[in-house]
């Protein structure tokens, strides 16, 4: 058993489950081992109780619009606790449709504008030319590293007050075709369009794990963990 | 037939003979030529044939070819699109190049989900066969319910056609339709109360949107589903697997409606393909023993797997195109009782699907309990594949960026057999190299 234990909520993991978010969780578990940390993952879905105190990490993944609409019907019931979690500075990763759900509004499968859960300030819209975005994406991230990933989204997102971009686009599209931003960061909530982002970008996994450890073990000396070098997995 | 379409059909026929002779790959060009001359040429075949349309994500080609084999027992002239060319021009090709049937012929057509509506415009099928719906290439166009809606658009244009559908797939029972319905599925296991693994597609009740439960699951989200919330459940089966007597990586012995059938390749998904063909043949009036013979006579129809002998090693090549494809193949090869080696080749060109995130949802970890002393990942996207296996806890996985080199690499394996589970582009690269070394016949299809 590792020295530290973290609990991860895979939010709507049986609905927003199409774009490899198990890979993000596997990355957190893999890098967790390098940081002497076991990461236990549990799906928290429709009608399940969710308390911010029970979890140290959240992954809210990408999926299909039909399933996104079912998650949307439920997420209001978890809003207060998610608000407490986010404002408390706990780490969360939100990808694609999960990223859209957290914002002010997005477009559903019937091309209607619907309200997001309004936990964050961004909004997602249909691109003006209607063209969905797919391809390789490279950004200069606010962690200082270049991040690589595959983006595959039919909505474009515009950041709101208090949000920073996860990075600046070097290659690809990112949030939209207007402002060179990709993703959103608010406190320790990291949003992105890149599928399986943590698999190619271990630095972000390490960052989330370190924040989670510092939150859960405020008196621990995490120097060893901070000094762990993240190398490209292959 | 009008003069214009006679000319179009004639030119299509000509271009096929010419191109077939010269290039040996005139797959859909005659249809393309004929359609240029007469875009509505398909209309002129509507009275010469009865039609059956086969649709769904996986198993279309196998189920179609197999159904044709069984229906030949009854119809002297059965047409189908054998090269998997399931777009309009591929379908036009088979009509313009076929000899004119003496009496009414039968055409069994594998049709791409989005093209059903374009084909049904020209003729009303006697039946639709619907195999399954899974997430395929992860472009936004092919979301499950969007694909189903496009299929329904075609089905609604033929309200008298009988729908012969896989009852174990909840989505096929999600809307009321005026059509007569025939359901096939598995009924060989006791009922429990299960949920699908959380990374399964479409785990939601199509009626009330609660998480659906299963009496048992055959694979993916297929099985005897029921909704504990609203009571929606799998319809009563008309044709069913009553017993699975044996299921190995090489074959299966099953009972359909109490009668024994041998299926000359492994895998639960091939039992579904056989059951789909059986259900259609029964619907069309073919008897059980004729169907039995048809299955055994044509083992090459089943599946996209190919065995290649390389020295004293055997390479078994199996093409996959999505997560559910990989998982069904893994389930099949795990029934191999001998130790074996395992290779996974990942490519991400448009023909493969450019988003490789699906590899993280495959159950590769279930291989760990088996005697597999050698793993290899490879092809253009080998880095993603290697990361997948590394994070999955596999140690000492070999890496080979060039699929052609597998012909050499197989010499180093400590087992007799290597399964190569491969995406389309990597398969083409590997087969090209095998053909160059005369290990298989040429030909790219």
Automatic annotation (TrEMBL), chain A:
InterPro entries: Class_I_gatase-like, GATase_3, Lipid_II_synth_GatD. This is Lipid II isoglutaminyl synthase (glutamine-hydrolyzing) subunit GatD. It comes from Limosilactobacillus panis DSM 6035. Pathway: Cell wall biogenesis; peptidoglycan biosynthesis. The keyword Hydrolase applies. SUPFAM superfamilies: Class I glutamine amidotransferase-like (SSF52317). The gene is gatD. The active site is at residue 195. It holds the Pfam family GATase_3.
TrEMBL record, chain B:
Residues 54-174 form the Mur ligase central domain. One of its GO terms (molecular function) is ATP binding. Pathway: Cell wall biogenesis; peptidoglycan biosynthesis. Keywords: ATP-binding, Cell shape, Cell wall biogenesis/degradation, Ligase, Metal-binding, Nucleotide-binding, Peptidoglycan synthesis, Zinc. The active site is at 355. It is an enzyme of class 6 (ligase). InterPro entries: Lipid_II_synth_MurT, Mur-like_cat_sf, Mur_ligase_cen, MurT_C. GO terms for biological process: cell wall organization; peptidoglycan biosynthetic process; regulation of cell shape. Its EC number is 6.3.5.13. It comes from the Bacteria. Coiled coil: none annotated. It catalyses: beta-D-GlcNAc-(1->4)-Mur2Ac(oyl-L-Ala-gamma-D-Glu-L-Lys-D-Ala-D-Ala)-di-trans,octa-cis-undecaprenyl diphosphate + ATP = beta-D-GlcNAc-(1->4)-Mur2Ac(oyl-L-Ala-gamma-D-O-P-Glu-L-Lys-D-Ala-D-Ala)-di-trans,octa-cis-undecaprenyl diphosphate + ADP; beta-D-GlcNAc-(1->4)-Mur2Ac(oyl-L-Ala-gamma-D-O-P-Glu-L-Lys-D-Ala-D-Ala)-di-trans,octa-cis-undecaprenyl diphosphate + NH4(+) = beta-D-GlcNAc-(1->4)-Mur2Ac(oyl-L-Ala-D-isoglutaminyl-L-Lys-D-Ala-D-Ala)-di-trans,octa-cis-undecaprenyl diphosphate + phosphate + H(+); beta-D-GlcNAc-(1->4)-Mur2Ac(oyl-L-Ala-gamma-D-Glu-L-Lys-D-Ala-D-Ala)-di-trans,octa-cis-undecaprenyl diphosphate + L-glutamine + ATP + H2O = beta-D-GlcNAc-(1->4)-Mur2Ac(oyl-L-Ala-D-isoglutaminyl-L-Lys-D-Ala-D-Ala)-di-trans,octa-cis-undecaprenyl diphosphate + L-glutamate + ADP + phosphate + H(+). Residues 319-427 form the Lipid II isoglutaminyl synthase (glutamine-hydrolyzing) subunit MurT C-terminal domain. Zn(2+) binds at residues 205, 208, 227, 230. It holds the Pfam family MurT_C. PANTHER family: LIPID II ISOGLUTAMINYL SYNTHASE (GLUTAMINE-HYDROLYZING) SUBUNIT MURT (PTHR23135:SF7), MUR LIGASE FAMILY MEMBER (PTHR23135). Forms a heterodimer with GatD. The lipid II isoglutaminyl synthase complex catalyzes the formation of alpha-D-isoglutamine in the cell wall lipid II stem peptide. The MurT subunit catalyzes the ATP-dependent amidation of D-glutamate residue of lipid II, converting it to an isoglutamine residue. Belongs to the MurCDEF family. MurT subfamily. This is Lipid II isoglutaminyl synthase (glutamine-hydrolyzing) subunit MurT.
């Amino acid at each position: 058993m590792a020295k530290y234990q973290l609990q991860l909520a895979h939010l709507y993991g049986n609905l927003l489950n199409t774009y490899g978010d198990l890979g993000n969780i596997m990355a957190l578990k893999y890098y967790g081992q390098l940081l002497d940390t076991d990461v236990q993952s549990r799906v928290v879905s429709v009608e399940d109780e969710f308390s911010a105190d029970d979890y140290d990490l959240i992954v809210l993944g990408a999926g299909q619009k039909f399933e996104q609409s079912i998650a949307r019907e439920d997420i209001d019931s978890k809003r207060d606790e998610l608000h407490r979690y986010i404002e408390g500075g706990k780490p969360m990763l939100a990808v694609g449709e999960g990223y859209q759900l957290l914002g002010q509004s997005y477009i559903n499968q019937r091309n209607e504008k619907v309200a997001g859960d309004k936990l964050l300030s961004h909004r997602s819209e249909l691109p003006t030319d209607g063209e969905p975005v797919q391809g390789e994406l490279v950004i200069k991230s606010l962690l200082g590293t270049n991040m690589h990933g595959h983006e595959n989204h039919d909505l474009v997102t515009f950041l709101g007050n208090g949000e920073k971009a996860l990075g600046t686009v070097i290659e690809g599209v990112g949030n939209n075709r207007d402002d060179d931003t990709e993703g959103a960061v608010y406190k320790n909530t990291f949003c992105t369009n890149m599928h399986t982002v943590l698999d190619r970008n271990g630095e972000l996994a390490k960052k989330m794990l370190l924040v989670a450890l510092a939150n859960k073990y405020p008196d621990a000396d995490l120097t060893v963990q901070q000094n762990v070098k993240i190398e490209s997995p292959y | 037939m009008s003069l214009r379409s006679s000319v179009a059909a004639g030119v299509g026929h000509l271009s096929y003979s010419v191109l077939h002779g010269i290039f040996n790959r005139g797959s859909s060009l005659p249809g393309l030529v004929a359609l240029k001359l007469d875009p509505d040429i398909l209309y002129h075949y509507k009275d010469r044939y009865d039609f059956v349309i086969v649709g769904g994500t996986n198993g279309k080609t196998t189920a179609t070819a197999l159904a044709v084999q069984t229906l030949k027992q009854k119809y002297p002239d059965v047409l189908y699109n054998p090269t998997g060319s399931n777009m309009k021009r591929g379908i036009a090709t088979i009509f313009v190049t076929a000899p004119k049937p003496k009496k009414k012929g039968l055409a069994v057509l594998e049709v791409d989900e989005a093209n059903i509506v374009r084909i049904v415009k020209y003729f009303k099928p006697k039946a639709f066969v619907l195999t399954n719906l899974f997430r395929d290439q992860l472009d936004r166009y092919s979301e499950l319910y969007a694909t189903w809606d496009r299929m329904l658009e075609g089905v609604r244009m033929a309200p008298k056609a009988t729908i012969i559908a896989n009852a174990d797939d909840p989505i096929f029972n999600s809307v009321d339709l005026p059509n007569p319905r025939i359901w096939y599925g598995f009924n060989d296991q006791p009922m429990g109360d299960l949920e699908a693994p959380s990374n399964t597609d479409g785990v939601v009740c199509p009626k009330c949107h609660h998480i659906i439960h299963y009496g048992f699951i055959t694979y993916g989200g297929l099985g005897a589903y029921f909704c504990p919330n609203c009571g929606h459940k799998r319809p009563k089966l008309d044709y069913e697997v009553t017993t699975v007597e044996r299921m190995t990586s090489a074959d299966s012995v099953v009972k359909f409606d109490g009668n024994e059938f041998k299926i000359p390749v492994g895998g639960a998904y091939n039992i579904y393909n056989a059951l789909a063909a059986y259900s259609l043949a029964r619907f069309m009036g073919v008897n059980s023993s004729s169907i039995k013979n048809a299955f055994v006579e044509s083992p090459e129809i089943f599946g996209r797997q190919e065995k290649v002998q390389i020295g004293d090693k055997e390479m078994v090549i199996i093409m996959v195109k999505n997560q559910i494809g990989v998982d069904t193949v893994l389930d099949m090869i795990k029934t191999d009782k001998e130790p074996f080696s395992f290779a996974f080749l990942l490519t991400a060109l448009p023909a493969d699907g450019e988003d490789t995130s699906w590899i993280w949802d495959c159950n590769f970890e279930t291989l760990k309990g088996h005697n597999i002393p050698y793993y290899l990942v490879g092809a253009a996207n080998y880095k993603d594949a290697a990361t997948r296996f590394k994070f999955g806890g596999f140690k000492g996985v070999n890496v080979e960026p060039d699929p052609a080199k597998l012909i050499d690499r197989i010499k180093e394996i400590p087992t007799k057999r290597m399964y190569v589970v491969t995406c389309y582009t990597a398969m083409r690269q590997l087969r090209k190299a095998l053909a160059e070394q005369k290990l298989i016949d040429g030909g790219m299809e």
